Amino acid sequence: MKILADENMPYVHDLFGDWAEIVTCPGREMTPEQLIDIDVLLVRSITRVDAALLAKANRLRFVGTATIGCDHIDTSLLTERGIAFSRAPGCNKVGVGDYVLAALLKVGEHKQWSLADKTIAVVGVGNTGLQVVARAQALGMRVWRCDPFKAQRDPTAFVELAQALTADIVSFHVPITTQGPYPTWHLLDKAAIDCLHPEQVLINACRGEVWDNKALLARQQRGAPLTLVMDVWENEPQVLAPLVPYTLIATPHIAGYSLEGKARGTYALYEALASHYQLELKHSLAQLLPRADFTQVTVNTALTQSCIARLVGLVYDIEKDDARFRAALTAPDFFDRLRKHYPERRELASLQLIGASIDDTAQTLGFKI
Ligand SMILES: NC(=O)C1=CN([C@@H]2O[C@H](COP(=O)(O)OP(=O)(O)OC[C@H]3O[C@@H](n4cnc5c(N)ncnc54)[C@H](O)[C@@H]3O)[C@@H](O)[C@H]2O)C=CC1
Ligand SMILES: O=C(O)C(=O)[C@H](O)COP(=O)(O)O
Fold first, then answer.
1. Pocket of ligand 2 from Cβ distances under 6 Å
2. Range of the domain at 34
3. What pTM was computed for the model?
4. Could you tell me the CATH number of the domain that includes residue 60?
5. Is the CB of 175 under 6 A from ligand 1?
């Protein structure tokens, strides 16, 4: 068996090496020629798997993406051509939850807000959105859920988008869609942006095209700017550079980039391929991951907002990601470079908290207890 894989997919050789010859290359540069005689294609979100890429794929039987989103895959084409497809739902949802928690704490510090007095609206309440709901509740925040698909089953538990957009903080966790009853392309469009109040905070850790970036820039330049946390951008890897100075936190699509999340993504494809070809699994996910640098902390104080911020900072320092982004902004290929050389980041669950004040709240925030 011959596998072509994105070079930024960790653990490919450890997991698939017994079964196949493996070739890797940069995900954004895969060519139709590279797919000649390839049986299995393993990608991440930056490879467009479409008719053009598959034009010379004479032997392709399986395509897998080690990501949650699959908007980069022409799944109808794969079905038409009888090529099996697998993805990794939820693989990096914890990383996204950790990222948004770190962002909320930074917003709290910046605006001198007690987050427990604030309302957050979570738009899109699936795997990643639910991680944010849990962490925000653990911070004592009031949480509004907005998800018209889920609202069909339980309308009283959800708010409409119009109400969600009045919350102190609005965090977006939807897939990018252009069809269907509730498309998300420019869900936050010019009209919605122009209705927002300058005290409001917006977080985007899903897909850049969910916000109209140009309309947002125009709004920020008019004065009384919104507070923005942007992990994703329209037209990645290009970034609307003039928008960056108007953000509180700017990062290069790394919200889900925990080591655990990436490993889970590759492992999901390992399981799917084993099932497709009836192969025996020889490796466990736990074996793959190295020990975290530090694994236990004794907390001798109450779990206040500032204490939580210090604890989160021990594991994940979002400000460093933001600083690297701003420092690199003008360099060629900066976006992909930052992602390729992203430092190892562990999930909050790699750190166990002990102490009299540590209870379920710490676990809901993401830590191990
Ligand atoms: N920045 C990053 O590193 C990452 C970004 N993502 C992005 O986040 C997206 C969401 O991920 P998950 O939560 O795991 O997906 P999911 O499929 O579990 O949940 C998405 C939710 O959005 C809801 N939804 C769809 N259209 C909506 C609309 N118009 N308004 C409100 N809700 C709507 C769906 O009903 C669903 O409950 C992914 O599709 C991916 O594009 C995912 C992982 C990492
Ligand atoms: O899983 C998703 O969906 C994501 O957005 C990934 O975190 C993106 O990572 P790459 O595929 O771009 O490495």
1. 8, 44-46, 67-69, 92, 253, 256
2. 2-87+258-287
3. 0.98
4. 3.40.50.720
5. yes
Q: Are 271 and 251 in contact, with CB atoms under 8 Å apart?
A: no
Instruction: Tell me if ipTM is over 0.85.
Output: yes
pLDDT digits 0-9 by tens, 255-283: 999 999 999 999 999 999 999 999 999 99
Ligand number, closest to the Cα atom of 65: 2
Query: If you measure from the C-alpha of residue 87 to the centroid of ligand 1, how many angstroms do you get, rounded to a whole number?
Result: 14
Tally of domains within the chain? 3
One domain for residues 50 and 108: no
Provide the residue count of the chain.
Answer: 369
Catalytic residue among 48, 236, 271, 337, which? 236
Render pLDDT for 220-230 as a digit per residue (tens, 0 to 9).
999 999 999 99
236 is catalytic: yes
**Sheet containing 119-123: which strands, arranged edge to edge?**
142-146, 119-123, 169-172, 201-204, 227-230, 249-250
